[in-house]
């Protein structure tokens, strides 16, 4: 894929970039390694000052950054503004908490003194997707730099201006040269960078294919990886739920980021006794959403990020129909306007055990399943290869307990939508990946957990 800004709202190629060549990549790796040798010894308060400045710059220039995101990948401008604000939040969270999260942990043993010490390990590579072009990167930058590591970013090829803008924020914030750099490289150059001795570990957010490729290269080199991959999150609604609230949240949770979020609710699993009401209200909500220019303040859903995503989504919807699914609304790309637009779509009657029902749908398409009871709801919820998040709606505490215990996912949210929060760990199980980002667990992923014993 060319490294270029192509406006998904009209297909216009706005800017193309020459990828960094091997020599430039080598220079950046050198700089990263040299920077680490000094940066690792700086104090938490020094790093925290720069991290707070990064948050200040993000907030000060949020309109400019939000516009860039909307231009490159089509999210609505208002959601892009919220994304920049969340990036500032994660910077402040780690600026304020890293020293505490990484302080020596004393343990009573038969030594005079024994403790666990957390030390940085070096240059960390981040391979990131386009769907949250700032957030995905800042949730890497904040713990990585606060822990004393340095970062290299290979961003998705369709968001190069976001990648360069992020590098600029970090430099303007005052971090030393080389503490964070953007590599403008295609995916097929990632294995070489991963194999380089100066790179000590990597985190990848993206598809299963990309995750498996990177992890296999890293595995051969005995280097650690964190993988945040796809999801097909269930959204379970049982009889006691507040249906109106569930429908409102279901709509937000499915349409987040024009439907292109790993933790978007994708499969709606609803108790038969309330399914008619849920379906009727969801249909009304979906049909009331405005699709169009993502810069317009009243737009709810902008274009999908690339023509390929639009094509893949349409093929999945057609596969649902071939498997017996019925379309309640939407169901075809919008051909009357240029750009990668797909309307809000609801599909019912898909056999839950068909292969297509277990796929990840990366766009504004909801699959609706009716279930007789909680047992079947949990069975269907767990019947995908993924295990990222799950949202479940019930006021019955016994049911809540069962859902918390039995859902196979990295997160279960009761009576709310799945979302990330700097204070809580984020990540998946099964084919959604491994490792955690954010919170204590996130900053502990790329440190040497050193045992110290003094006699
Ligand atoms: P993708 O194709 O895997 O791209 C993600 C990143 O990986 C891009 O920078 C891409 O570079 C790079 N890449 C692609 N193939 C690679 C390879 N063989 N080796 C190394 N790097 C490679 O993912 P996508 O389809 O754009 O993103 C959507 C996927 O990401 C969905 O499955 C979504 O659920 C998942 N996601 C997960 C999370 C989470 O936190 N769990 C969050 C957001 C998204 P190029 O752009 O140059 O190809």
Structural summary, described in words:
- By secondary structure, the protein is of the alpha/beta class.
- It has two domains: 3-229 and 432-454, Aldehyde Dehydrogenase, Chain A, domain 1 (3-Layer(aba) Sandwich); 233-414, 3-Layer(aba) Sandwich (Aldehyde Dehydrogenase, Chain A, domain 2), CATH 3.40.309.10.
- It has 14 helices and 20 strands.
- The protein has helices at 22-39, 44-60, 62-73, 77-101, 135-146, 160-172, 190-195, 208-220, 243-255, 272-288, 307-322, 374-381, 397-406, 439-444, and strands at residues 4-6, 13-16, 105-106, 113-120, 123-127, 150-154, 180-183, 199-205, 224-228, 233-237, 265-271, 326-329, 345-348, 365-371, 386-387, 389-393, 411-414, 429-430, 433-434, 447-454.
- The strands form five sheets. The protein has a seven-stranded mixed sheet with strand order 12-13-14-11-10-16-17, with helices on both faces. The chain has a six-stranded mixed sheet with strand order 7-6-5-8-9-19, sandwiched between helices. A three-stranded antiparallel sheet has the order 3-4-20, with no helix packed on it.
- Helix 3 crosses helix 4.
- The longest helix has 25 residues, at 77-101.
- It starts with a strand and ends with a strand.
- The mean pLDDT is 98.
- The structure holds NADP nicotinamide-adenine-dinucleotide phosphate (NAP).
- NADP nicotinamide-adenine-dinucleotide phosphate binds at residues 1, 127-131, 154-157, 186-187, 190, 205-207, 210, 213-214, 228-231, 262, 360, 362, 388, 428, 432-433.
């Amino acid at each position: 894929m060319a490294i270029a800004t192509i406006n998904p709202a009209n297909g216009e190629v706005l800017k193309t970039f020459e990828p960094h060549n091997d020599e430039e990549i080598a220079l950046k790796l050198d700089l990263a390694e040299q920077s680490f040798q000094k940066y690792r010894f700086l104090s938490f308060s020094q790093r925290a000052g720069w991290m707070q400045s990064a948050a200040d710059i993000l907030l000060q220039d949020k309109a400019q950054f939000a516009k860039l995101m909307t231009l490159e990948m089509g999210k609505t401008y208002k959601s892009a503004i919220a994304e920049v604000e969340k990036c500032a939040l994660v910077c402040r969270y780690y600026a304020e908490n890293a020293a505490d999260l990484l302080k020596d942990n004393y343990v009573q043993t038969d030594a005079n003194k024994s403790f666990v010490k957390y030390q940085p390990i070096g240059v960390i590579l981040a391979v990131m997707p386009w769907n949250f072009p700032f957030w995905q990167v800042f949730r890497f930058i904040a713990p990585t730099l606060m822990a004393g590591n340095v970062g290299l970013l290979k961003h998705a090829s369709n968001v190069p201006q976001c990648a360069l803008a992020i590098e600029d924020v970090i430099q303007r914030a005052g971090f030393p040269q080389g503490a964070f750099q953007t590599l403008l490289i295609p995916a097929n150059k990632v294995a070489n960078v991963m194999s380089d001795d100066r790179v000590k570990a990597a985190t990848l957010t993206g598809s299963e294919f990309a995750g498996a490729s990177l992890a296999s290269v890293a595995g051969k080199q005995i280097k650690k990886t964190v993988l945040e991959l796809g999801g097909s999150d269930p959204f379970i609604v049982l009889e006691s739920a507040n249906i109106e609230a569930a429908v409102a949240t279901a709509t937000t949770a499915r349409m987040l980021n024009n439907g292109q979020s790993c933790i978007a609710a994708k499969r709606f699993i609803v108790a038969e006794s309330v399914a008619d009401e849920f379906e009727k209200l969801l249909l009304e909500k979906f049909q009331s959403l405005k699709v169009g220019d993502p810069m317009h303040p009243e737009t709810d859903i902008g274009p999908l990020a690339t023509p390929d995503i639009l094509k893949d989504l349409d093929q999945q919807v057609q596969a649902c129909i071939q498997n017996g699914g019925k379309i309640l609304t939407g169901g075809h790309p919008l051909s009357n306007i240029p750009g990668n637009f797909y309307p809000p779509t609801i599909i019912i009657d898909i056999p839950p055990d068909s292969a297509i029902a277990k796929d990840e749908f990366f766009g504004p398409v909801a699959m609706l399943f009716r279930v007789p009871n909680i047992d079947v709801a949990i069975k269907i919820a767990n019947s995908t290869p993924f295990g990222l998040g799950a949202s479940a709606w019930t006021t019955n505490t016994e049911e809540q307990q069962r859902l918390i215990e039995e859902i196979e996912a990295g997160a279960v949210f009761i009576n709310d939508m799945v979302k990330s929060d700097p204070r809580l760990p984020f990540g998946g199980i099964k084919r959604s990946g491994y490792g955690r980002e954010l919170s204590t667990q996130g900053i502990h992923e790329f440190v040497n957990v050193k045992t110290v014993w003094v006699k």
